C-alpha cells in the first residue's frame, strides 16, 4: 500500500479532517510536557479516535460521549489544580476542549471554533517558552492553520492542499510588513490586571532557599540563565561572581535569607569600592524572581527599563517585581571592594547562630580548631585558612552525585562522605566557621560563564549556579571564600565545568561528532538565540522610544507612537485609495487618450460630448477653424492618427505600443488652445 | 457588467467578527503576560486578515458578468438562464458563488486565469408576461471566510413568460363548424362567388396560382379559394368557452401548441391584435408572445 497514493484517493472530507488534526496536534504537542500527565494521552486518544473515524468514514460519536469525556476532563483538571481558573488549569482545559470539539466537527461553525481555539493555543505556547525554536514551530503551525482555513473556503472540487498552502503563505508574507509596523509601534503597556499566581510556575533557576542538594538539579540544566555584554574587557573568569540570594539563616536542614533581609538598609552595607569599574549589560532570562544578578560589588542601582532596584545590607540587588519576561539592565561593578568593616557585634550575632542538636562532630571539630588558633586579631583569618587547608588535604572530592545526606549533613560532609559539590562545601564550611565563632554565611548565585565567540556575549547557564561562603574578619569586613575551589579549582578558575553525564541518545548523536564542531554549532545557535532575545523578546517600550528618537522625535512618548502608527495607517490607506483610483481609471489607454483630447478641446471651447469620436472632433475642428492654421492641422492630424491606431492598427504588439506612446507624448506637446 | 470598486461590496462575516474577537483576546493576553512573541503572533494574524480582506475583494473585482439571453418559458415552469463569467486577469478566482438574490441556492465555480465559465441559475417566474430577470447575487468568502464580498446585478434582459398551457385541453375547434358564428372568417367567400385573388403567400399550393394573371402582370397571385382556406384555423378567446381571461389564454396556448404539433395553419385573434394564419416555429413564437402579453 503506497501511502501518498492512498492519501490522494481519500475523500476530500477525510483528507481535510486528517490535515486539520495534524495541525492541531502540531499546535498542542509542544505544550503537553508542561501540562498534567493525563492531558497528553487524553488529547492524543481523542484525536486518534477522530482520525480513525475520518479514515473509515464512520459517523461521529453521540453527544453523551462528548459530555462524558468533558466531565472527565473537568474532574481531572480540578484534581490536578484544585481550580479551573488560572493559567495552567485554563490551558489544560482549552487543550482538552479543542480535542473534544473535533468530535463534533459538523458545520462550518464548528470548524471556526476549532480554528480560533487553535490560534489561542498557539499563544499559550509562549507562556512556557518564547525561544527561537518555539517561534519557528508556531510559525509552521500558523501556516498550517491558515492553509486549513483557506482549504475550507475552496468548496469546488478537490483542490490540492499545496494550493491552499501557497495562498496562505502568500498572505502571511504580505501580512508580515503589517506585523512589523504594528510590532515596532504598538505601545507596550503594563499588564492590565494582576497575573494569576501560577504565572511563575515551572521555571528553573536559583531558589530563595537552599536544602543541600538543590543546586545539583541546576547543574544538569544547560539552559541559559542570563547573557552578559561587557562594554570593556571582562574581569577574569575567577572574579565572575554574580550575586544572588544571601542565605544566613540555618535551621538544621534548610538555609534561608535572614529575617532582616526583607528590610532594605543599603547604608548598613558600609561599602567602599576602588579600582577600575566594569560596565556591562545583563539580559536576564525570565526566572520569576525579583533578584537582579550583578557582579560583586555593585554600589549603584542597575538601570532598569521600568521600576526600580534596591540593595540589601547583604549587597544583594532586587527589583520590586518579578522577572516574568526577559529583562535587560545596565550595571557597573567594582571587583575591588570592601564592606561591612564596622559591623557591631550585635549585627554579626545572626551570622554565628546555629541550631542546637545538629552536627555535633562538626562543632567539636570547630572547637578543636578554635583552640589551636592563635588569639587576637588574626584568629578568624587563621581559622579560615585552617578549614580551607583541611578541605585541600583531607581527601575531599568534588562530585555531582554525593548521595543523599542525612540529618547531620555537615557531619557527613566533613567526616563520612568527604564529597559533594558547591552547596556541600559552602554549607559545611559556614557551619564549621560559625561553630568556631567566625561570622559566616552562604551566598548563592552564578559563577563563571563562557564567552560566545560568534557574537562576543558571555553566556551564563543554569549549570553555572554556584554557592560560596562569606566570612567576616575584623578590620577587613566581609570576605568571599569559595571552599569549592580548594577541591575543584577548575570549577571556578576556567570554564571546564564538571560535565554531567550525557544521556544515551545525546551520546549516540554527539559521540561521533567532532567536539570542536559541536561546540561551534552550539555557539552559533546560542548567538542566534541571543540575537532573537535582543531584538525580538527584549523589544520594550524603552526600545520603542529609542526607535522614535532615531527617526527624529526629540522627546518621544507613547503618544508619539500612536501618532506615528496613525500616520502610517493614513498614508497606507491613501496609497491604497490612490492605487484603486488608478486601477479604476486604468481602462484602455486609447480611451483615456481620447477622453483627454475631449477634455482639452472642451476647455478650449469646442463642444466635445463624451460620445464624440476622434473623427467627429476633427470635423468639428475643421468647421470651427476652417482648417487653416498649422496648429489646427496638427490637432486634426493627431485625432485622425488616434482613430487609425484603433481601427487600422499596425501589426504587432510592440509597434502598437510605440505609436500609442508617441501619441501620448504629442498630446502633451500639442497646443490645444484652439 | 464588469465588477469594479463601485459595485463590489465587502463586510465582515460572523466568522470575521469571531476572528476579530480572537485577535482581541490574543492582544490582551500578550499585554497581560508581556509576551513579545504573542504580539508578533497577534499582529501577523491581523496582517493576514487585512491581506485576506484585500484578496477577497480582488477575487470578485474585475470579473465581467454577462447574461446569455434566456429562452421564454411557460408560466409555472423553471426559467433557466446562463450567466457567463469572464476572468480577464492572470490569476485564478476560486470559490465564486452565484444565486438569485434571496434564494440561498448557491452555484459554486472556480474561474481559471484568462478563462470564462458559464453558470446556470434558475428562477420560478410567477405569471405570464414580460418580467425583468431577478437580481443575481455573486459573492465569495475566499480565502478565510472572514469577509463576505458580494455584488448585486440586475440583468437588463427581460424574461418572456408564456401562459401555462392547459394540461388537458379540449380538442381543437373545428374551423368549418365555427362558420357563421361571426368571429371567425374561415370562409368569407362561400356564396359561389368567383375566387378572390390575393398575393402569393409561401405555402400556397401551385394549383392555386393564377398563372394567366402572373403572365400578365408579372406578380405571383394565388386564388384565395374556400378550399385553401378551409385548413386555416382561427383561434380566439370566445372559442374557448371559458369566462376567466387567464384560463382562456391557457386554453388558447394549449391549442396553439397542439396546432403547431399537427402542422396546421392557424391564426390567432386577440383583442387589438390579429395574427394571420400561418405555421412554423416563428409563427408559433409570435402567437405565444402575443398570448403572453395579451
Structural write-up:
The complex is a heterodimer of chains A (674) and B (294). Chain A has five domains: 12-185, no CATH class; 216-494, no CATH class; 504-536; 541-585; 589-669, no CATH class. Helices cover 52% and strands 13% of the residues of chain A. Chain A is built from 24 helices and 20 strands. Mean pLDDT of chain A is 83; it is low at 196-203 and 493-503. Chain B has helices at 14-33, 36-60, 211-217, 226-229, 245-262, 281-293; strands at residues 9-12, 64-68, 73-74, 79-87, 93-100, 107-111, 115-123, 129-132, 136-140, 147-153, 158-162, 196-199, 221-224, 233-236, 266-270, 273-278. In chain B, helix 1 packs antiparallel against helix 2 (36-60) and helix 5 runs antiparallel to helix 6. Chains A and B meet through helix 6, helix 7, helix 8 and helix 20 of A and helix 1, helix 2 and strand 6 of B.
Overall mean pLDDT score of chain B? 83
For this structure, the quaternary state is: heterodimer
Could you give the distance between the termini of chain B? 32 Å
Number of domains of chain A: 5
Q: Give the biggest beta sheet of chain B.
A: 5 strands, antiparallel
Helix fraction of chain A by DSSP (H/I, runs of at least 4): 40-55%
The end-to-end distance of chain A, rounded to whole angstroms, is 83 Å
* SS content category of chain B: alpha+beta
Principal-axis shape of chain B: elongated
Major β-sheet annotation of chain A: 5 strands, antiparallel
Pair with the biggest interface: A-B, 56 and 45 residues
Read across the widest sheet of chain A, the strand sequence of neighbours is 12-7-2-18-17
Q: Rg of chain A, please?
A: 37 Å
Number of strands of chain A: 20
Helix amount of chain B: 25-40%
Low-confidence regions of chain B: 176-194
